[in-house]
Amino acid sequence: MVEVVEAGLWGLVAGSALLLGAALGYGLRVPQKVIATVMAFGAGVLISAVSFELVGEAYEEAGLAPAAVGTLIGAVAYTGGNVWLARRGARHRKRSGHAQAQPSESEQGGSGTALALGALLDGVPESAVIGVSLLDGGAVSLVTVAAVFISNVPEGLSSSAGMKRAGRTKGYVFGVWAAIAAASTVSAVFGYTVVGSFSPAVIAAVTAVAAGAILAMVADTMIPEAYDDAHLAIGLVTVSGFLVSFALSHT
């Protein structure tokens, strides 16, 4: 029971970064280049975490085939869900509204629901692996938590700024991110309790699935937003985020 509570708390900690980012994006007029730079940094952090904390561990536990197949399945599942949501108005859910605007409800009916579901699609895999990380020796992977937290801040910041530009109310914006933070808690608990009942090989495969979904999300939603306003520096900033996460995983 203690580990279950711990999994939920770590999931909540990581998910709360979305609310922090949303508060910054909705309440302050953050320059577009700052948003893009932070998004690029968060993308680098997640890429490193996926490489060394998720796919790397899946490979060590189950071998190349389960790790590779799981990663592909995760990417396909995320891409399929993303395509479905994009057709309903959530294509630019992480955009701040500067280069690519999110649609308002009047422009595309149901886009508000699609945006909320898109945020859920982005957040669940990240939180699930936090719970799964507790299975390895009973201690959470602080690198994974840090990576998700750091990447969630720019996600919430950029998306909430875009929601505000599209005319979404404050109640809607913070309601969405509060719900995703709560879902992050549940997802982390799910990762520990349900996935933890499987064999090590299955756990490794599930970890790889989450890794594939996260990597597809980074490539499809985070990097394009960063490139729009920081394309001259995006490579350097992304590598900086990668190295910070890499250093954390080796300390």
Shape: globular
Number of helices: 8
Helix content: over 70%
The termini sit apart by 29 Å
Transmembrane segments: 7-27, 34-52, 64-85, 172-192, 198-218, 230-248
Keywords: Membrane, Transmembrane, Transmembrane helix
Protein name: ZIP family zinc transporter
Keywords, please?
single chain; 251 residues; mainly alpha; 80% helix; globular
How is the secondary structure organized here?
Elements: H1 2-27, H2 32-62, H3 64-90, H4 111-133, H5 142-165, H6 170-193, H7 200-230, H8 234-249
Helix pairs in contact: 1-4, 1-5, 1-6, 2-3, 2-5, 2-7, 2-8, 3-4, 3-7, 4-6, 4-7, 5-6
Summarize the structure.
This protein is mainly alpha-helical and 251 residues long. The protein is 80% helix and 0% strand.
Describe the overall structure.
The protein has eight helices and no strands. It is mostly helical and 251 residues long. Helix 2 (32-62) runs antiparallel to helix 5, helix 2 (32-62) packs across helix 8 and helix 5 (142-165) runs antiparallel to helix 6. The radius of gyration is 17 Å and the shape is globular. The model has no long low-confidence stretch (mean pLDDT 80).
